[in-house]
Amino acid sequence: MDNIIKKIVKIVKSDPDRIKTDSRDVKEGDIYVAIKGTRLDGNAYVDEALDRGAELVLCENNREDARNAGRIFVVDNTKEKLADIAKAVHDDPSSRMRVHGITGTNGKTTTAFLIFNALRNSGVKAGMIGTVYTVISEDARERSRMTTPGTLALNEYLGKMVRAGDDAAVMEISSHALCQGRVTGIGLDSAVFTNITPEHLDYHGDMDEYFSQKKKIFGLLKPSGAAFVNMDDPLLRDIRRSISPRKTIGFSIRGKSDIYARGMVFSDESTEFEVCAEDHGNFHISSRLIGAHNVYNIMAAAAVLLYSGMDPADVREGIEKTTSVPGRLEKVESKAGFSVFVDYAHTPDALKNTLSFLRSMAKARLICVFGCGGDRDKGKRPVMGGISSEFCDVTVITNDNPRMEDPLSIMRQIEKGMSGEADYSIIPDRGEAIKTAVAMAEVDDIILIAGKGHETYQIIGDKVFQFDDAVSAGKALKEMGYA
User: Which architecture does CATH list for 3-88?
Assistant: First the structure.
């Protein structure tokens, strides 16, 4: 470890909050680490940090400043140094527990919940870091702000898990986190790659770069760690060669692999199939998580659990006890003669998978309420409009999180993808859109409210409003007398 890193660790060991990456937060005696972000470069704010009383500054710009001699230290990569600091301050927590990391365009959250719940059900003390919750030990749970937190927070959470006696951690790892180095220095026992389809191309530029960033998860594997890969995904089939000589376990639902599913039977209440594991025998699964996409999630989780040494009976029990995942094809219970589901599907592939399954289950009409987020990949908007018009009888286009974009402009871009014969309407107010869908529903119809899932807020402009799809649907159902 560099001498300057050792010095900083010694200074902040008893108070990690003294490390700051935002110059505006710096107080007397703090350590400022200048990070180059997507929009702002922290190296441009070194003087501000010093003026605010920073004791030491770590930056990438070579500079002469006699006034601050001994306070400024120039390094090649501040993100890597910050990871070294965070890791050392919290005593390298990922080395003291089993850590299961999951990446992929879709399925990260459900796979994480399945692994986490099965671990706990079998008596393993475990924590979780992901899109919905961060869970530390038995009673410490908080809503997550992002899928994968920054380097400092991530090591702090893992450190808290170790101190709470957790033996394992399950964490979702986004492409942004891999690209920005948030997970640098974290060691994984399992690295799961669920699938890859176009997403975040506004950030990564193209699919090659997106895939390149995703594959970085395998570089986090401990020497004894294993990779778990969806062999049905065309882009992932040949990935074994690129991560050799690491142990790679393939999972599939379309053919034989190290672990695969067969005999799948679907209904609108359950999914049943047989798990066939080359090294662990076969066993039956009956899950309340519905749809073929959830079979993939279950197979990924089962693979991790089995190859981590869990008994197949415990794997089965843990998976079957996971009856729902917040905002993932979550049914809004009511006495109505039709069904209402809330799902996080906010990518073309996720929306297609969900609507395709619901279409196969629908006895009458399929109605979809959805929008697209602002300040995000614009290219997917007409694509998702086309998908909804292909599978649905009725589509209600509405607001998602428009952020700083014009909401109507986003909805018009979705509209461009709708087929000429599509039955659709544009209702900007999301609550009214949901209410309209519920009011038009008849016996045996299915309503899907897509895009926001577990989220309990809506971002319009620079303001955040409380909004929950499930709550809004429940209110509409109650007003219609279906409570």
Answer: 3-Layer(aba) Sandwich (3.40)
